[in-house]
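User: quick one, sequence for these tokens?
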């Protein structure tokens, strides 16, 4: 009998998996022997080969990157910094539609007969509401209710897709994998089989309607064409999910009508939406309400338990959230996620943290930051230190009145 089969038999039915991420000890429990520990530790946690498919589209990804370079893209790591002229690209953002390669985002696919039940016990939103016409924002939290990741999730014929920053994909995949246990669930990194493209700015919806015959009519509305899955993120803000071999032809069709632009320009559009994105610099810093995620429909308060659910619910119903998401402008050339925010009169006490920042069309940076509500209303905030560059508070959503 193979070792892992012996381990399964040794573990028997004495342990069951709780969808909150823990274990329940059943009445007939026995002490786990070495074989059972082998199964739980080695087979399910440290053996990702059982849940990782090989990259099937790496040549297509490489071809797409080469195609972008031929058209003026300046790449750095996983980001396209800009196309040809950074300043002209930023200046054009408020006026025209732009198309963006989203190379800094990754995809995890969760599939199998138990995939929906499994994710229902892990994420803040109700995955049972996902269907062919709808996507959703969600979050993945620690047991203390602090966000490890903010996600865009949707369902297709192959299971559930979770979009998050590429830098977080491996860690989130391994953490989710710990709780699969005997569930019929497979978690695969699909970052190399799909190309993500952002489209935003004035006229973006009309452009989609011209190319595809329709556009998602509302945020989180979704439809699939023969070329792509298209998801609405906000007014004139969309994302396209494309099989890698089809990406070049679709990119060229969109680029005939929208200006190519880089990752920082797309981040500026998300900041204006405002859609906060948790990165490595801000993991475990915020409960979802601090980042206004419940206002974006990313938290369902009537579903069952998930890691951190009690803390998230308590924050909602007892009014314990003293920090919220705000949008600011700073006349500094560089601001970054994770930077501290100080009041001008307190050199040692931080009152906020930058969540996302991007260069603004008129110079300086726009940012989303989680800040103490009383301090945001008082003003006089500084970036980095108490004598750092002053922050100017903006309407939370781009285009709203001050």
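Assistant:
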């Amino acid at each position: 009998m193979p070792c892992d089969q012996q381990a399964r038999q040794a573990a028997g039915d004495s342990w069951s998996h709780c969808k909150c991420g823990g274990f329940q000890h059943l009445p007939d429990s026995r002490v786990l022997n070495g074989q059972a520990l082998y199964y739980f530790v080695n087979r399910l946690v440290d053996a990702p080969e059982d849940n990782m498919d090989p990259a099937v589209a790496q040549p297509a990804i490489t071809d797409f990157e080469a195609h972008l370079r031929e058209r003026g893209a300046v790449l750095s790591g996983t980001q396209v910094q800009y196309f040809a002229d950074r300043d002209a690209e930023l200046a054009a953002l408020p006026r025209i539609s732009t198309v963006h390669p989203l190379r800094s985002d990754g995809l995890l696919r969760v599939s199998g007969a138990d995939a929906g039940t499994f994710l229902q016990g892990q994420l803040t939103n109700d995955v049972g509401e996902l269907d062919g016409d709808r996507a959703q924002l969600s979050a993945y939290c620690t047991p203390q209710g602090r966000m490890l990741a903010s996600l865009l999730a949707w369902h297709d014929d192959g299971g559930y897709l979770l979009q998050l920053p590429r830098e977080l994909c491996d860690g989130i995949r391994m953490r989710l994998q710990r709780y699969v246990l005997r569930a019929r669930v497979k978690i695969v990194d699909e970052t190399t089989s799909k190309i993500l493209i952002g489209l935003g700015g004035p006229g973006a919806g009309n452009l989609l309607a011209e190319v595809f015959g329709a556009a998602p009519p509302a945020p989180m509305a979704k439809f699939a064409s023969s070329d792509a899955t298209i998801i609405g993120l906000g007014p004139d803000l969309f994302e396209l999910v494309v099989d890698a071999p089809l990406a070049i032809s679709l990119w060229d069709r969109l680029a005939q009508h929208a200006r190519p632009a880089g990752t920082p320009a797309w981040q500026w559009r998300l900041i204006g939406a405002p859609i906060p994105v948790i990165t490595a610099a801000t993991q475990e810093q915020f409960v979802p309400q601090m980042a206004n995620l419940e206002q974006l429909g990313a938290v369902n308060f009537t579903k069952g338990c998930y890691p951190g659910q009690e803390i998230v619910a308590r924050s909602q119903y007892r009014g314990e959230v003293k920090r919220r998401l705000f949008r600011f402008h700073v006349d500094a050339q560089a601001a970054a996620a994770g930077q501290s925010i100080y009041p001008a009169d307190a050199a040692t006490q931080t009152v906020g943290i930058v969540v996302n920042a991007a260069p603004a069309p008129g110079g300086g940076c726009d940012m989303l930051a989680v800040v103490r509500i009383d301090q945001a209303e008082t003003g006089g905030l500084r970036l980095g230190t108490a004598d750092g560059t002053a922050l100017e508070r903006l309407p939370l959503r781009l285009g709203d009145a001050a």
